[in-house]
Design brief:
The complex is a heterodimer of chains A (about 325) and B (about 375). Chain A is of the alpha/beta class. Chain A is built from 11 helices and 13 strands. Chain A has a 6-stranded mixed sheet with strand order 5-6-7-3-8-9, with helices on both faces. A 4-stranded antiparallel sheet of chain A has the order 11-12-10-13. Chain A has a 3-stranded antiparallel sheet with strand order 2-1-4, covered by helices on one side. In chain A, strand 6, helix 6 and strand 7 form a beta-alpha-beta unit. The C terminus of chain A is likely disordered. Chain B is built from 14 helices and 5 strands. In chain B, helix 7 packs antiparallel against helix 9, helix 7 runs antiparallel to helix 13 and helix 10 runs antiparallel to helix 11. Chain B is elongated and about 85 Å long. About 0% of the residues of chain B have low confidence. The chains are: A alpha/beta (about 325), B alpha/beta (about 375). Chains A and B meet through helix 2 and helix 3 of A and helix 1 and helix 8 of B.
Chain lengths: ~325, ~375
Amino acid sequence: MNPIEVSSLKKCYGSLKAVDDISFTVKEGEVFGLLGPNGAGKTTTIEILEGLRQQDGGQAKVLGLDPWKNGYELHKRIGVIPQEFNFFEKTRPREAIIYYADLFGVKVDPDVILKEVLLEDSAKTNFDNLSGGQKQKTGLALSLVNTPELLFLDEPTTGLDPNARRAIWEVIRGLKAKGKTIILTTHYLDEAQQLSDRVAIMDHGHIVAMGTSDEIIEQHGSGERLEIHGSEQLADYIRANTELQVDYDRLKGVISMPLKQKIDALAALAAAEQSKMDWGDIQTRRDSLDDVFVKLISGRVNEQGELTDKYENAGKS
Amino acid sequence: MSSARRTFADFKVFSRGYLRNRFGLFFGLIFPVILILIFGAIFSSGTTGTINVYTQNLDTNAPPQANIASQFLTALNGSTTIRVITINASEDFPNYLAAHSSSDGIIVPANFSTDYLKGNQVNLTVYGNPASSTSGIVSGTVNGYTNYFNLKRFNGTAVIGVTSATVNTQQTKYVDFLIPGLIGFSILVSPMFSLVNISSEYKKTKLFKQLSLTPLTKNEWLASKVLWYIVLTFASFALMVAVGILAFGAHVTLSVWLIPFLVFGPMLFASLGMLVGTVTKNPETAGVIGNIVTFPMMFLAGTFFPIAIMPQYLQNFAHILPLFYIVEGLNNVMVYGNVQGALIDLAVVLIITAVFFALAVRLFKWRED
């Protein structure tokens, strides 16, 4: 049995469908990323799986248990860092680990856990004096106290600076190397790519793509494309004088043309040359996960996870 | 067993955090002591409102048309400062006053009316505690009416005299009343404000949600908070009694009957604080509601001064305040040695505590639907 099995899961808040009929499984020893902008339904999904919220429809099995009905049993076997991890202000990481060990009724060496999450230096600092990264590491440390079979990391690096983010990644890689099954939500594409074996991209409560990065690119990417730098007039000229689909990114000044066959590149370049306009920087490339992600969620995601500007490259043919 | 282990683990973490937080420590332990020092030093003076005065009329054989005792008491009752409460002539008066936690009383002697009409010297006995703020008012009022009656019939010859007497509280000082009052204050303020704050803050910062992911149950969490505030109350009690005795030579009766008040008091207000924090949407609203609930109790439940000196409508209002029964109970035990009266207060405290605790546990949610 897989550690997580979800089928046709639904959750509404009033008229808002936060999670709308999603299905996926997470295999043992796998790092599974739930990727999407704020409001996509990631946290609601993960909180249903943690037994913190009750679904309105569908099925969720975590370690073979119903998370809502068997939450108390389940919590002894899972580790969780909730979004924006918080703790008692005047408690120190080392004391927090001992506290959790007492709650779970387990014997642990706090120093071993502190070392595992690279937090030895701040073991005796009050929580309210820790940096954002150290706070998240405290959360990670606590999620490991009960030696969980499955870890839920809900946006573990949101709001952290790049160094702190990389340090958390280091810890997560260490856990992955130990064979832990991890479900990770994030709105950072690089985080999902760096850490996850498989990714599900969520948007408006739906899973819009799922698989390894390559599988998603293969399935949703547009294949090979020719890109040249030039003006919008040049893009219009090529569009008028060839059979090609021509996209124009105003921000970057890049003309982009999907290639059905390699010979299309010659037609495009010939048209550019005939136009007598300036152009250069020829390159061919395939869609990255970033391209596919932007296309699937119809926009870009800022640092805070909000969906911002619409991608200029899309739909300008 | 494991439930006790978890409760104790939570107790340890919470108490350590509390002790590291100077703000909490100040309000929990130091502030009430400062109040004792300030109010003890200022002493009490000046009162308003009507004072209940127990009166025993032993002049039972006076003819109705010449019942001077009755006329005198009616006149006294018509004053704005005294309310005469007549008790049966067969009662043992000093014991009755002690049992009703009062030091103010008047005995009208037998044959008062006959002696007065004949112009024979006759003495009213006025009970009071010289240190109490109410005592001066009672004796002043009685003297005023005595003079009036003397003047009316005998042109000022002192036919009616006044003899002073005291019950067993004769050595009592203002600080003796202040100590139970401020212990009550301490029982109210620390658990109430703290639980209002943490229950709404933990909800906002999702700490409850996080704790719900551990084997700790919400009842264990609440129990550890109650436990901590009971410990804090005992510490605060010891500190205040020590300061009262050392700084002001206070007289305090220590009895096992204090224990239930020091245990259930913090439980009552921790539950009430939890309830306020639970039913409100955010910490700001919780703070406002918490203040609305707490402030009237702080000043009107007999903490800083006896409610007897307040206007009647405020005295009536005081009786709906949970803290009133704790302060009255503590006064009954510590000042008057009136265990019977304290037991009635304790019964009320137990009922209110049970209701608030049950509501807090029922409405407080770890996780959402």
